[in-house]
From TrEMBL, chains A, B:
Location within or outside the cell: Cytoplasm, Cytosol
Transferase in keyword set: yes
Protein name according to UniProt: glutathione transferase
Ranges of residues in domain GST N-terminal: 42-121
Gene designation: LOC110412518
Record's catalysed reaction(s): RX + glutathione = an S-substituted glutathione + a halide anion + H(+)
Taxonomic source organism: Herrania umbratica
Amino acid sequence: MAEIHVMISSCERNVGIATAIRRKPVLANFTSKLQQTMADEDEVKLFGMWASPYSRRVELALKLKGIPFQYVEEDLSSKSCLLLKYNPVHQKIPVLVHNGKPIAESLVIMEYIDETWTNNPILPQDPYDRAMARFWAKFIDEKLLMTARKVSFASGKEKEQVIDEITEQLKLLESELQGKEYFSGPSIGYLDIVASVLVFWFGNVQEALGVDMFTQEKFPIIFGWIGKVFEIDAVKECRIPKEKHLEYIRTRLEALKSASK
Amino acid sequence: MAEIHVMISSCERNVGIATAIRRKPVLANFTSKLQQTMADEDEVKLFGMWASPYSRRVELALKLKGIPFQYVEEDLSSKSCLLLKYNPVHQKIPVLVHNGKPIAESLVIMEYIDETWTNNPILPQDPYDRAMARFWAKFIDEKLLMTARKVSFASGKEKEQVIDEITEQLKLLESELQGKEYFSGPSIGYLDIVASVLVFWFGNVQEALGVDMFTQEKFPIIFGWIGKVFEIDAVKECRIPKEKHLEYIRTRLEALKSASK
């Protein structure tokens, strides 16, 4: 699949919103192999950023369901007027715009996608299984990723403590995955898509930071799952290019260090 | 409605889990006026804490849907074995236990309740409206309440900045509510239940902290909504007793200050 990343950068308040809106995103050349139930008049746009695991998970959900969409790449250092218009509260990606109506927050977007396009459900059908999927998704976003962020700023003993904390959190996920093909059961689903941050992002961040906590030896079940997940075409298409990502993380870390001096 | 708050305190590891389990919670004398579709054999327990807005929102959701439940009051300074068993990841209330199966995290519990007992739906039916309700619920929990927590620790100029931040966040909610009877539309629903933290908790915390940002003058629409919400019986039943709450907050603040000295 060839993907066109369209960059809409800078709000250009002086030029006005009208000009920015005229810069229309180009339709990504996405041909789904999966059945798709979308009406022809549906217009789906995803405002994302190539290195964001939150953006990548929405992309993956759309691809797994076979929903054609326009992908709009945002320059986060100079956000577009459209992004600010569509997500005035957080001013963040990802934002899904469906027939002109914007939805922000990746977990909210994924629920919307599953409820709007009911083919290839990503959430389980049983209410208890759905609750468990939502519980672990919150755990990944509010615990694991929040702790992972702390590593960048920590040093010495504090860094060791943060790494211990992440290790404990990953052990909980390892245990949740035990005896299953995927987090969602026999096939990839909602929680796998949320956990895709471990596939797309976690390893690269660890490498850039020079830490060594997330290894196959320590987490054989999670690494087994990563191997399986990577066999899926839609996942391959969403992979974050490693060298570009490493360079991006290192540049960001340098900027953060300079800013805190 | 007479409610029995059963206190199960202390894990008593020396005594063992079996003893703690024998301390059975007493069935709350709850007779619903609303239609309820629950099977007789359903057993629903809520592990909560009287001063927690997260616990109160689950209680309110159960009451609005007319689901009989046992309420188990937890002593958070000495958590019960049952709580640790049912929520080993976070070791926090609220936990809903339905026929022996535990669910943690108030927003996850509310979705579970709505999907399991489909009478008196609390979430809207339309996927976009559902997405908006979830978006604002996340905003209340991850922005407003997180900012509100900072007030306790801040002083001087920093405190002023935090108060400005909360004011901006409350303005966004005020604007979201404009032109509506309730957050959820013409009747009380999911987002109103989540926002009930403004009804049950926010005013008392503000009073105990001696700040003055959340007033009828500044937020006439939110205060109008609070007035309407308080006319609902189930809401009245979930109200946190003011004087007891003020004393509780002041004691906690003193403890926090002593700990940070």
